[in-house]
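Weekly puzzle thread! Below is a chain. First person to post its structure in token form gets bragging rights.
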Amino acid sequence: MTAAEPVIGFAGIGAMGTSMAGNLARAGYKLVVFDLNTARTAALAGAHAVSVAANLAELGAAANIIITMLPDGKAVRAALCGANDNFKDCLLERAAKDTLVIDMSSSSPVGTRELGKLLAARGTPFIDAPVSGGVKGAIAASLAIMVGGDEAIFERVQPLLAKMGGQ
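Winning reply:
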């Protein structure tokens, strides 16, 4: 995360991601969102001051923090790194190397560690932050967020995470 104002790219505007992104927008964070279901992103943009990216690469280029809330680790890796980790047509294709990635999806620990190594080799900071609490917790901003990663990075993003999860 840079010292500049955070611009959060949020990929995954589903049942939980909609409320999580909405909570961040209500807290005043600048958001750019993307989901394959364009009706979801349009509805979110109609309810909150968020921008909608046309594709993953555009979202990555616009953000200095990327949050993923996707169905599983394979979807997260493909969205971040592209097919076969080629960094094409994906979030990191046009993102700055120091763009912080926060994966809030429920993913396999083995896959998450592999993804962390791949991102580290690229110079991209990464925090694993899966959530518990379901849709009700996402709506109420009371999710339990289990964070793994560099403590200094966690300290910098803790205020952001607190807008989605209870203290």
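Puzzle host: Confirmed. Bonus trivia for everyone else. Residues 109-122 form the longest helix (14 residues).
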